[in-house]
Amino acid sequence: MLKVDNVTKVYKVGTFGGRTMTAVDTVSFDVRPGEVVSLIGESGSGKSTIGKMILGLTPVTSGSITVDGVPIQPGKDYYRTVQGVFQDPFSCYNPVFKADRVFALIKESYYPSVPDAEWTERVRSAIQDVRLNPDEVLGKFPHQLSGGQLQRLLIARALLLDLKLLIADEITSMLDASTRIDVLNLLAELKARGLGVLYVTHDLSLGHYLAERTVVLRRGTIVEMGLTSKVFDDPLHPYTRQLLSAVPRLHAPWDDIEPPATCLYHERGGVGGLLEADPGHYVACAQLSDC
Amino acid sequence: MTTTTTLPTEERVVRREALYFAVRNTKLMIGFGIVLFLLLVGIFGPILANVEDPNEYVAAAMLPPSSEHWFGTTTFGQDVFTQFVYGLRTTFVAGALGGGIAAVIAMVIGFVAGYRGGWVDEILNMLTNVVLVIPTLAVLLIINAYLGIRSVGVQALFIGLTSWPWAARSIRAQTFSLRNREFVDLARLSGMTTRKIITREIAPNMSSYLFMTFILLFGGSILIASSLDFIGLGPTEGVSLGLMLQNSTQWSALQLGLWWWFVPPGAGITAVVGALYVANVGLDEVFNPKLRET
């Protein structure tokens, strides 16, 4: 459904845009209906930029993004089927308006002819779908609600549309552990409804919990990509290995982490510079033994 | 909250809410009350006074305030109260027109430059900087010499066309920072157009700031108008509070102890601008839900 093909994003920086900074470098992957793909990477790896490009909030420098074979055209019709939920729920609401205004905007843009009473019913049922009590959250200002409530309201907002693809950009990083698992389970439900979800995160365990496939991103390029089980159980790229060893574990003492790998993915080949190590399991570096 | 109520549309809610908190805000009510009172004096005072020319010599010179002449008379025997009510009207016109024109230009340029960014921003910024450094006084002298127009309207228009740059710059900066907030992204994801995002997401978010800009421009226009009057570039007919202050200084009201000549216009200017400031603080509380005391 979603196909990201050799996408590159170059920012102009400095006075008069004299210098350039490549945030995303020839990235290709896809998301199928009813599938969660997690995009894992450290801060500054370009994962949020990819999310923004898919949502049409940032233009693509080169390459193409298609949904169902059609190049994306950011606009009203596109956002009927593709939506995003962002990292910081507090900054997603205009603080001078009540939180339920996000629903009113959806009605205004997409369902102007639906009678008010019916719309209220729809909103209430969407809010119940994300396991909130409508009476507790409607008619309140954003600062009167918790981060978890706000984040779930944003998911409820997306549910009001005919959604095919949801870009979830670090949606659980501001939430506490118990709320986080609720939100993750919500995403799993969306998946069961046949939605494609791109789950952008820096948290490996959350990606592992949720995603069918995993894309590991470093400095704007994909270093490894494949089925989550493959990537997590048999990581090929040294960066992936290092990431996995850096995950804090319960019942295990802190251990010295290996120094960062110096592999610069030399001798890249294949599609988007990736090699197919196993069927469906791609890795960046051609000389694995040297890394 | 009852379960049977429908979700009202956002416009209505905002308006009703704002009004609800507005009438309960003491600062706002006091500030607007004073401005409204002076405005009414400026509107109806001249109608009641009903004189042909407020600068007419109507009584003996240098009379202190009395029941006949509420604010006394000048060294020429002009009635200060009559001048005051006419001057108040002129001052409101100059302030509202000058401040209004400047505020509209500043908002259009500030919002567009801040939201669009890129080369649009570069061009508008350049225009702003050019106008910012224009020597207003020299231009006004030239315009005066060529056109010879000396009405309050032209004066206000000139003030409006030259005093917007700093406001445009600050609105641009504010818009620039709001543009990168995620609720703007979310508005875009709700299918809103750029114009709608500016008028319905960004502008309401900084509405008290915009109002403050207007108040500052309003007060600034009054002060600029007074200075222009002072150097003889003001309107030739009629009277304004600035002109009254200037005349009182010129004819040594301070040295002669004619306090009733310069206190009313000075207090008038201070009251209008000061009351607008107080109202602005109250308005901030009305527009910003976090500052409300509930």
Automatic annotation (TrEMBL), chain A:
Gene3D superfamilies: P-loop containing nucleotide triphosphate hydrolases (3.40.50.300). GO terms for molecular function: ATP binding; ATP hydrolysis activity. Signal peptide: none annotated. The keyword Transport applies. Residues 2-244 form the ABC transporter domain. Pfam families: ABC_tran, oligo_HPY. GO terms for biological process: peptide transport. Keywords: ATP-binding, Nucleotide-binding, Transport. This is Oligopeptide ABC transporter ATP-binding protein. It comes from Nonomuraea glycinis.
TrEMBL record, chain B:
Keywords: Cell membrane, Membrane, Transmembrane, Transmembrane helix, Transport. The keyword Transport applies. The chain crosses the membrane at residues 28-49, 92-115, 127-147, 153-171, 209-233, 258-283. It is found in: Cell membrane. It is a multi-pass membrane protein. InterPro entries: BP-dependent_transpt_permease, MetI-like, MetI-like_sf. GO terms for cellular component: plasma membrane. Its main location: membrane. GO terms for biological process: transmembrane transport. Belongs to the binding-protein-dependent transport system permease family. This is Peptide ABC transporter permease.
